[in-house]
């Protein structure tokens, strides 16, 4: 074999190597750690609020399995949406479009974690929670990612259910069932998701247009999207207070959630009112950032009251 042929073969091997075998940080990025942190937190709140008790070790196992299942969903989402991620400025640095992990590697990683998390949760905690986690992964990957995301402007409305299931799974890990209280936790996240994502979609509208994703601002226009954001914020307000109204949260939570909900509605009204230029973009960013704080505070208050009650 000539020197030129050897150099050519080495260059081809290097190209193959560069196309995958990402670092640990690349695989962590596939798990969507920021989304996973919200899943872990809300699932933990559901577990802590559930009546009865679970052995601390099994509680840790349950939260770990839910976190891994959420990460698996993220990896499978990136596997399927690699073409979209390559177009959008917000996502083009993700591991697959950046060439650090191949689609095949992401698929294998996501499938392995999905099966492992469901089986482990079922065997060590209970099979109802395991089946619920399996359904959540299926809903996010098949229903939302593969179907709704590319076919309807209601993608984030219906698909948002996947992100709202974790507190119910946490509840199910303790009780082996679900209840009205756990459904209220689900409903808070479910109603919160559209205005949260639509505020971002208004800012990143050009990205979604380039990727041909039928987000509401792309299909119906920014004015209609602003109407929807305000409507969902108004509907969310009483749901945010519902834990107090239904008797499983204190008056302190009731007052705090009412104030937070009022601010959420006010910021949504600001988005509805400001429709052009930098003021409109700034209003959207304010709502997007506050919406994260809003959800965190509601669940933190519920968790705090649960911990105080358990002392």
Automatic annotation (TrEMBL):
EC annotation from Swiss-Prot or TrEMBL: 2.5.1.141
Compartments, as annotated in UniProt: Cell membrane
InterPro entries: Protohaem_IX_farnesylTrfase, UbiA_prenyltransferase, UbiA_prenylTrfase_CS, UbiA_sf
Superkingdom field: Bacteria
Gene3D superfamilies reported for this sequence: UbiA prenyltransferase
Protein's membrane topology: Multi-pass membrane protein
Keywords for this protein: Cell membrane, Heme biosynthesis, Membrane, Transferase, Transmembrane, Transmembrane helix
Transmembrane feature ranges: 35-54, 60-80, 101-121, 127-148, 155-174, 180-203, 229-246, 252-272, 292-310
One Gene Ontology term from the biological process aspect of the record: heme O biosynthetic process
Pathway: Porphyrin-containing compound metabolism; heme O biosynthesis; heme O from protoheme: step 1/1
EC primary class: transferase
First-listed, main subcellular location of the protein, grouped into a coarse class: membrane
Pfam families in UniProt: UbiA
Catalytic activity: heme b + (2E,6E)-farnesyl diphosphate + H2O = Fe(II)-heme o + diphosphate
Family to which the UniProt record says this protein belongs: Belongs to the UbiA prenyltransferase family. Protoheme IX farnesyltransferase subfamily.
Task of the protein: Converts heme B (protoheme IX) to heme O by substitution of the vinyl group on carbon 2 of heme B porphyrin ring with a hydroxyethyl farnesyl side group.
PANTHER family: 4-HYDROXYBENZOATE SOLANESYLTRANSFERASE, PROTOHEME IX FARNESYLTRANSFERASE, MITOCHONDRIAL
Name listed for the protein in its UniProt record: Protoheme IX farnesyltransferase
Annotated organism of origin: Roseibium aggregatum
Native organism taxonomy: Bacteria, Pseudomonadati, Pseudomonadota, Alphaproteobacteria, Hyphomicrobiales
């Amino acid at each position: 074999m000539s020197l030129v042929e050897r150099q050519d073969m080495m260059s081809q091997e290097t190209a193959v190597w560069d196309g995958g075998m990402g670092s640990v940080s690349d695989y962590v990025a596939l798990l969507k750690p920021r989304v996973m942190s919200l899943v872990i937190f809300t699932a933990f709140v559901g577990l802590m609020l559930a009546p009865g008790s679970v052995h601390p070790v099994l509680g840790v196992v349950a939260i770990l399995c839910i976190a891994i299942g959420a990460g698996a969903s993220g990896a499978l989402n990136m596997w399927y949406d690699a073409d979209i991620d390559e177009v959008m400025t917000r996502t083009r640095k993700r591991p697959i479009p950046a060439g650090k992990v191949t689609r095949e590697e992401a698929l294998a990683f996501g499938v392995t974690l999905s099966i492992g998390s469901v089986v482990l949760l079922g065997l060590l905690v209970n099979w109802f929670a395991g089946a619920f986690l399996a359904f959540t992964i299926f809903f996010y990957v098949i229903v939302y990612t593969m179907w709704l995301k590319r076919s309807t402007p209601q993608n984030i409305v219906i698909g948002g259910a996947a992100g709202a299931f974790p507190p119910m799974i946490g509840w199910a890990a303790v009780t082996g069932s679900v209840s009205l209280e756990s459904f209220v936790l689900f409903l808070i996240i479910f109603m919160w998701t559209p205005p949260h994502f639509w505020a971002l979609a208004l800012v990143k509208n050009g990205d979604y247009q380039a990727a041909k994703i039928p987000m509401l601002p792309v299909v119906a226009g920014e004015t209609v999207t602003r109407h929807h954001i305000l409507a969902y914020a108004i509907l969310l307000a009483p749901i945010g207070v519902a834990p107090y109204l239904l008797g499983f949260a204190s008056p302190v939570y009731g007052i705090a959630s009412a104030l937070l909900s009022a601010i959420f509605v006010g910021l949504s009204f600001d988005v509805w009112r400001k429709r052009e230029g930098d003021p409109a973009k700034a209003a959207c960013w304010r709502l997007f950032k506050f919406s994260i704080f809003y959800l965190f505070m509601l669940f933190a208050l519920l968790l705090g009251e649960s911990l105080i009650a358990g002392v």
